[in-house]
Amino acid sequence: MLEEKGVLFNLLRFLHKGLSLNRTRRLLRMRKDTFSILLKQAVELEVLIKKNGRYILSRKGEKFIRKNKPNLFRCNCNIGFKISKEILLKAKEYCKLRVVPNIEIDQCPTKPKDLAQRIAFMYENGDLNNKRILCIGDNDFASLLMFEIAKPKEVVVIDIDERVLDIIKKISEKQKWAIKTKKFDIRKFSQINYPKELKERFDVFQTDPPYTEVGFKYYIALGMVALKRKGTCYIVAPHMNLENWSDELLYEIEKFLLEYGFFITDIFPSFQTFLDKYGIISSIIRAERTNLIKEPFSALKQLNIDKFYTIR
User: Which residues form the N(4)-bis(aminopropyl)spermidine synthase C-terminal domain (predicted)?
Assistant: First the structure.
């Protein structure tokens, strides 16, 4: 199965190029436990040797690599953007202010470098300066880093956690940044219950929802209602090899976007990692809205709200 999926070849290819185990795992889009199983199987197949805690290619592994001509492929080992030291330091500074994650509402902090990379991606696409931006959930403080990099016209943060909102409000007021905060339980979002002042107001929304189909659709639906025609969205979504649930979830997200008038411009794999024990790896999706305005409320009625969070 590993050879059919190309996973074994890529494992050996990345290690052959001198990448660390962490970098290799990220490029393979694998959780820590799945990656450990892969390494064990590679040792059993005698293509890797474990020596002093390190994994090196055996003669059989070297032969396997040469046979498959790895130089015909360009190893995309430089995914992402070059982040300045100043911005990375700011990202680390804000990350230190984060609240203790509440796993019951699926709070899972991203790594500082990956947070900076996400904001840099938005900046490079012209989606920060002079834009009205909606952050749907922001326990990573992406809204604060946006103002360190660019000059948005306005940022509104919606979150269920008052601790998160209080910190953002305190810092933004001190810095005189145009950030507004609003507490809202997205599980209660419906055609008759949502912040009406948000409707078709924003140029951009960004979100990293709970990793369930219900959670994603509710978060994205709120963004859809808030976004202007020709607006843009950034969505962080899990995407890992050998894990059918992440493939199926990514399929549902893309289908939902297409059905409601969006077209996908970019999907970057292995874009974001988290400070969690499982080693979840996520892609980032960038999509733009067409002139079609189709409200998603009917789709939400078909979902089981009890499956909103991963912990039920």
Answer: 86-283
CATH number of the domain where residue 194 is located = 3.40.50.150
Task: Work out the mean pLDDT of the chain and round it to a whole number.
Answer: 89
Is 78 inside a domain boundary? no
Q: CA-to-CA distance for 122 and 204, rounded, in angstroms?
A: 9
Residue 65: CATH number of its domain:
1.10.10.10
**141 plus 282 within the same structural domain:** yes
Task: With respect to residue 149, please indicate whether it lies within any of the assigned structural domains.
Answer: yes
| Residue at 133 is within a domain | yes
- In angstroms, the CA 291 to CA 6 distance is 40
Are 99 and 160 in the same domain?
yes
Instruction: Pick left, alpha or beta for residue 10 (phi over 0 → left; psi -120 to 50 → alpha; otherwise beta).
Output: alpha
Residue-wise pLDDT for 257-302, tens only, equals 999 999 999 999 889 889 888 888 999 999 999 988 788 999 999 9
CA 154 to CA 213: how far, in whole Å? Answer: 29
> Which residue bears the tokens 């499982």?
278
Query: What are phi and psi for residue 236, nearest 5 degrees?
Result: -90, 125
CB count in 10 Å sphere of residue 301: 9
Same domain assignment for residues 134 and 254: yes
- The domain in which residue 28 lies consists of 2-72
Integer CA distances (angstroms), 83 to 45, 86, 89, 120, 121, in order: 39, 8, 10, 8, 10
Answer whether residue 63 is part of any domain: yes
- For residue 30, the SS3 value is coil
Q: Structure pTM?
A: 0.83
Write the pLDDT tens digit of every residue in 190-211: 988 888 899 999 999 999 999 9
